[in-house]
Amino acid sequence: MAGKVIVITGASGGIGAASAELLAARGHAVVLAARRREALHEVAGRCGPSARVVVADVAVRADVDRLAREALATCGRIDVWINNAGRGITRAPSELTDDDIDAMIRVNVKSALYGMQAVLPHFKERNDGQIINVSSMLGRIPFAVIRSAYSAAKHFLNALTIAMRTEVRQTHPGIQFTLVSPGVVFTDFGRNALHGGPDSRSLPGGQDVSEVAKVIADSVESRVPDVYTRPGSQAMIAKWYADVGVDPP
Q1: Would you state the pLDDT for residue 2?
Q2: How far apart are CA 12 and CA 35, in angstroms?
Q3: Residue 118 CB coordination number (10 Å)
Q4: Considering the domain boundaries, does residue 220 fall inside one?
Q5: What is the pTM of this model?
Q6: Could you tell me if residue 208 is inside a domain?
Q7: Is 168 a member of any domain?
Q8: What is the pLDDT of residues 221-242, one digit of tens each?
Q9: What is the distance of C-alpha 155 from the center of its chain?
Q10: In terms of Cα–Cα distance, which of 156, 161, 170 is closest to 117?
Q11: Which of 9, 19, 54, 157 places its Cα 20 to 30 Å from the Cα of 179?
Q12: Per the structure, how many domains does the chain have?
């Protein structure tokens, strides 16, 4: 197997599907995970014969553990694990319920934690491997009021990724944790948000999903620790925090 074996969660559409297709085109073997069986098989068909499908709800730890086992049993190893699954929300912070917060943490944080913990023993055995966590610009700047709980969950994911990277590199420096931060992407993210919301394709300043997929695929080769999907993002973050009079985190 010349390329890498790459597990991708949330692979039935959007960023996950586009990344899978591009990575497969670059010669990697992809293991696609999501809840929607038919959609997964459609993506796998576009990825070619090296693609594998595992139907799983990555917000359930047992499903993620099974995903890791099936990927190893089928492919013999895992080289890269991409935690891409996630979901938005449309609700002002003053209206958030316990269920809203729990849903955002479960889908956007716990799913990634489960993935990291499931694949880490395998990576540690080899002192090699890469975990890519797909975050968001909203994990850097809480500028969308209606996405407040999603933004908070992505801030949590960012902190968790950095903490995990710091812990693991002390004993296993060959393992990399990469944080990817897209902005608005023209996918079904907005329409699929909890409580509905505006279609992401209608928002200004968005990116085509192929641009984000390219950044993710490139990060598999570069193994950079942090990357934004469009130029100028770091300057935007610095300006936003300067305008509100605080230092960026």
Answers
A1: 65
A2: 8
A3: 22
A4: yes
A5: 0.95
A6: yes
A7: yes
A8: 999 999 999 988 988 898 888 8
A9: 13
A10: 161
A11: 54
A12: 1
